[in-house]
UniProtKB/TrEMBL annotation:
Protein name as catalogued: ChrA protein
Positions of transmembrane segments: 12-32, 79-104, 116-133, 145-177, 198-216, 231-249, 270-289, 295-317, 329-346, 358-391
Organism: Rossellomorea marisflavi
GO cellular component: plasma membrane
Domain of life: Bacteria
Keyword hit for Nucleotidyltransferase: no
Protein's UniProt keywords contain Iron-sulfur: no
Compartments, record wording: Cell membrane
Annotated GO MF terms: chromate transmembrane transporter activity
NCBIfam families according to UniProt: 2A51 (TIGR00937)
Amino acid sequence: MKSKIVTWLELLLISTRLGLTSFGGPIAHLGYFHEEYVRKKKWIDEKTYSELVALCQFLPGPASSQVGIGIGILKGGKFGGIVSFIGFTLPSVIVLTLFAIFLGNTGVSDAGWLKGLKIVAVAVVAHAITGMASKLTPDLTRKGIALLAILFTLLWGSAFSQVTVIILAGVCGFLLYRKQNEQTEQHTHSQFPISKTFGTVCLVLFFGLLGGLPLLKEATSTMAVTLFDSFYRAGALVFGGGHVVLPLLEKELVPSGFISGQEFLAGYGAAQAVPGPLFTFAAFLGGAIGGWEYALLATLAIFLPAFLLIFGALPFWNGLRRNPGMNGVLMGVNAGVVGILISAFYDPIWTSSITSPLHFGMAAILFSMLMFWKLPPWVIVVTGIVAGSLFL
């Protein structure tokens, strides 16, 4: 037991350090993890790490957080996964919760620096689009799937449109790319200390909550249950990384009056300035709606699907990867995600943030700093705040 406690404390220490220093988004996080856990600590070999990354890219939810949880499980069992998650996530949760409370107490909704943060969100999402589109839609077929996803989500303004797009894109990917995937190479096997029984329970719980929470919301009509359902569904249905959670949460929270569109985008801009996973944006939203208690509720709700899926999928991953249609489904889903992201970029991000030539010029400068000068996101955030304070 003593050795386990030492392992858990070491996991907590290292993951907290990563949570304090891991700027740059999920791809950068995977680089930090590789440097720390594969090269320095040698807790996981290259093949196992690449397989774990592949699994987490396949699952919905925050991929970098799920990789961290998986490494924690491999090193310290189930509790090791929890400890690893807490260390990596808690620093940004605390900062964004405090920012939400500060924003609510100061009443600075028209401040220039806040408008600057909204324009930061434009630049960051535009940068995410270019990177994801080049990687996830390399051929004309997947570009076509992305284009149809744009049209579908823009013309059908429903909370269910994104989910429908993901399902249809997955079906298209299966039909169009399954033969291609039958020829893929064989993969190595990785063993994680989780039984198939425990994994099955987690998967049943994942789908049970996904279907049961909306019914519970209708039966109780309490704000806590309503918010838990909204954040849980966002965490359960997001493929492609944290940026794609934006349209799902915006559709859930802004029209319902839980938070204003301006506050929503300001918090999203602030989330770019902190290290750790972008899903901690939920802490800001919960804090803006109801203080630290709702920040904690929102954080638990949006990350719970990630836990249930990684715990549930690890025991079955080797068999899943041998299924010839699974990679095809993923290829189609990723193309659909690109379309969803472009749709969200237009509305609400662009339409509510870029309303003058000056706004467009600022967004172009911030985008260029990210895209061409390769400056870190926190520099973009600081620049947006300063420029907004001076000129807006």
